[in-house]
Amino acid sequence: MKSRIDKLWADFYEWPERWAGISEDVPCGEGIIAIYKPFVEGLLSRLSLNTVKRHLDNLWLLGGELIREINMNPKLREKVPMDLLLANVDETGGPYCRHLDSEEQMRAYDATCKKLFKFLQERMPTEA
What we know:
There is one protein chain. The protein is an all-alpha fold and 128 residues long. The chain has one domain. Helices cover 66% and strands 0% of the residues. The chain has helices at residues 4-8, 15-19, 26-46, 49-72, 81-88, 103-123.
């Protein structure tokens, strides 16, 4: 049975190959998608399709920046995707994105990154 993501954004699962500069990038991209999926499903359950589409556009950009980062610093390939995400998003937003042309686009991108960070924090096991 297809999820709503499959039905609405058929290319979502192709992102790892599209982000990849080299074949070694694909597993990290797949890990990022695995983390994104429950986040996006949660967005779909409570936001309009247009709003979710905007967040998906920003997630696409974030994933591309993360893959670019591991290509610039290959030692980061050793990090699991969750650690890579948590090192790059926080309560203030996300990493610099060279594809954004305006403050408005940057604010929207950072809003997505903040939402993702909050989602990840809520799902991380707390230390006893």
